[in-house]
Amino acid sequence: MSNAKSPLLGEFIRARRERLSTTQVGLPDGLRRRAKGLRREEVASLCGISPTWLTWIEQGRALSVSPATLARIATVLMLNLAEREYMFDLAGARDPDAPEHESSLALKETLTRAVNQIPSPAYVLDQVWDVLIWNRAAEELFVGWLTDGEIRHNLLHYMFLSPDARRLVSDWDLRAQRLVAEFRADASAELEGEVIHTFVDDLRAQSESFEMLWRQQDVMEREGGDRAFNHPQFGALIYRQLTLRVTNSPELKLVMLL
Q1: Looking at residue 159, what DSSP letter applies?
Q2: Which CATH class is domain 104-257?
Q3: CATH architecture of the region 2-91
Q4: What's the pTM value of the predicted model, to 2 decimals?
């Protein structure tokens, strides 16, 4: 069930109801029709809910509305894809009839081509910050990590379990603190889920530094800025970090060091 006690959701549904005519939904047009657009009773009947319930939704008084009910409302109100997604976002619910996103294989192929077109270090992180895709420049920057099978291709594992990371990252203490805080914010919606919970517990058991920082409960939004490295071959390097989310798969992040 969604948390639907929102005036914005009710205002949106009412506006779309008043936009429709009876002929658009196949209803006869009454002679002395004063209501603008469709009446609540008409929409409620078409949706299979009571007029009182629809009134409460429009007034922001409904504590929760099921995704199935929202889907019927979207269909009756003839919402386009953008309007439908907007309504479900306002309701804090997932659309049960949302179109399938691009297949994971096709998306990975697209992202791989994109990452390989970037001349500077670039890589793609998933929800636990495993590195799924990276380019040659990233391999050269993170010496040995992305080609070494001993250390998991995971940003936090590298930072806290690889001695190379402490030598490479110039301001390791500060960056490590920020990374943990950023990960907590990034994973906040899934912290109690099995995947994130298992990942965090495993890393806490392997790294005292991560355990200490995780217990601090710091939360920071992942942001750009200068990233300094002390590369064993190229010496001092400074990049400007930019992180972008993939629209159809927001759990994926494209990180570029420019």
Answers
A1: H
A2: alpha beta
A3: Orthogonal Bundle (1.10)
A4: 0.65
